[in-house]
Design goal:
Structural class: alpha+beta
Number of strands: 7
Shape: globular
Amino acid sequence: MSTVYEMVRDFKRKHHGGVAWRVAKHAAVIEKHLNPGEKVIYVFAGQKNNEFYDIFTTCVVALTNKRILIGQKRVFWGYFLSSITPDLYNDLRVYQGLFWGHLIIDTVKEEVILSNLPKSSLDEIETQITEFMMTEKQKYHVNRESK
């Protein structure tokens, strides 16, 4: 079993009520694209869309020591992988609804919307992503000033 799958399984056990399945297949996509020296810090599962009723776009999101990876295995063949590096990250918005919550990760190029997340997990996810990105963006800022 992969460590990404084990982490997302633990997330689902800790935070009930989210909509996500086939997480082992989605986790395998992320495992396949981890670079040498890249370590997974935090993992969660949700839907990569803006609609609460669209439950067919499950994905696994992994926060590594270098970037955010979003992996989706297609049903028949192929997969999707999105990567958000700290230099492209702008902002994070959290919305809590009646049943689920969703996150909007604002990047330079697009907004990535992750929906149908358990309400109990929103604070934890926001803290993990925000703390990591604040630390990493400071490193990018220091590197640019030293050049």
